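so i finally got all the pieces together for this one. its two components total, 668 residues if u count the protein bits. some of the lines might not be protein, just check the labels. i wanna see the whole assembly predicted at once instead of chain by chain like last time, that was a mess tbh
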Amino acid sequence: MLWLQLTLTGLQTGALYALTAVGFSLIFGATRVFHFAHGAAFVLAAYVFYWVDTAGLGMIPGIVLAALAAMAFGVAMDRLVYAPIQRHEGSFFTVFVASFGVGIAVQNIVGMVFGRGFVTMNSTLSRSREIVDGVYVAPLAWIAIACAAVFFALLQFFLRRTHTGMALRALADSPELIRVYGLDPRRLSSYAFALGSVLVVPGAVITALGSGLNPALGHHVMLISLAATIVGGIGSIGGALVAGFVLGLAENLALIFFQSQWTEAVTFAILFLVILLRPSGLFGRAAAH
Amino acid sequence: MLKATRTAALAAAAFCAVAGLAGGVQAKDIEIGAEFPLSGSNAIYGDVFKSGTELAVAHINADHMLKAPLKILYEDSQALPQPAVVAMTKLVEVNKVPYVLSAFTGVSKAISTLGQRSQTVVVNGGGVGPDLAKLGPYFWNVIPLANLEVRAMVPYLAKHDMKKVALIYVDDPLGQAILDELKANLPKAGGKLVAEMSVPTSAQSFSGVAAQVRASGADAVYIASYGAQQIQIAKQLRDNGVKVQLASYSGFSTPDALKLPEANGLLYTTQAVNYKADDAVTKRFLADYEKAHDGKKPSAYVVNYYNAVLLFGILGHKLEEAGKPITGANLLAERKATKSFDLVGGKVSFQENGTLLAPIQVNKIVDGAGQPQETVDIH
């Protein structure tokens, strides 16, 4: 039954990876900004949720405020950090360093406000129940998988059926053409940051309830988001979703064959293989030379 | 013209007199270094360690134990060897400190070479890898090492019918050392290591590991990790249906680990500190610590780092009295010449390898605090 247990655990892990990776992929795909501070948005949302819930205000206000905080952070990053750098023709590397710096600053500010220790939330949602003999699943696992499916469906609907969504997809292809059509790329960029940042909220809430939080969590989130984005294909939302699940399942099923210390290596072996065999990612479009 | 020259000369003389007076009154601080994790997921340890060092500095300075005020230069090791070596280079080459406080096995091993080469004493009060006893004369430990902790925990588990043990260990020198000790000591106690699962230092998800633990049929799970990770392991084991006894080492004695609801009932070892000792050092330490921390009892880490700084104060005082400069070489010679020291917990002495020998205590977490279960004398 170990394989069934690890498959279910892998799906839960994959759902969390997918949720964070899709947001990063949306931002990177639409704006080409390497938003390293995406991990900081995750940490911020998770701690706001933790703060509101432990203050006794309940989970729903916690989720709403976490979403507002993540959205405000994403838009502020776009308007106050990336836009000024890009106005002065800052290089990709300059943007990356600025984003990295903000990520570190947020980690330290969160540490100052909430303490640098590990915080957990006492929730029955994280307690596993035996569903068949020797196989345990927590309600959070089903919530994570359902969230990944629902958010992906909503995002696809938004990107394919709404005017703003289509404009965002167009922004990824050609910002110049966007201007020709009378649209404002700067405004669309802010939409991408707002939406991409909100997508971290389900993952942040589930992590807060399930495994607990510390201010340094953002780096791991960012690493997985980046790996899933590259494996899935840069700019491909569906690719990021599938890659998130692939990485989560691989990480857990690897335990059948390898020591647990190698599970992270499995993630990066997959990344390496994809880069080697299909540089544009599983669902990415090959770049023209 | 003559008047102007005379005024300028008087002003210059007055300035020199004031400057000289000031220089005479304000002696240069005596500086020592500390390499603690001040950021990242292990920063909580830095806060705990500092509460001990700062109290010791306050006591040493209040007592005028040294001829000049003592000051600690803190560097952020992040609990990682590479930044620790960079910081150690600065402390040794730029600040020229004779004494550096260290923590974490990997960090301590990394900076020990520089300590030996520059004759700078490195004192560890937090890392427990057994290798730390073999790092040369300039490396001292004011904490009993993990081999002793495992030797105390294994018989305790066996005595309570927990003979099949699964180990989850972090993939670093500390985890490896605990694995070796369990392999060596479990068969002697009639036990068996039924599963060993190493995890990378950055791992945060352990539900898969929990499934492996359940499949192993272990009676107890020994967690050999630290910082946020060890708490995540304990929480996720419980959340994922692992109901057997959890056990760990002194790394689990941090405030946020103790207050974790899922850690209730977990067994962990620490050095046994006699807080009821009737000496003035222990009484003053306890009274002032509890006053500063709302009546909270200090952890063994706080004691270790208080003792590490106090040890410097005692040795430095002796050197100053003998008219010798406070250098690493002189501190080492003075420590070897002194049979025992009055530190928190009573009189203590160092072994030949520079490590303090102390009895080990098995504790159980009950309602967020460690309750001593048994004290074991390890030799």
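Confidence is low (pLDDT under 50) at residues 7-26 of chain B.
The longest strand of chain B covers residues 192-199.
anyway lmk what u think
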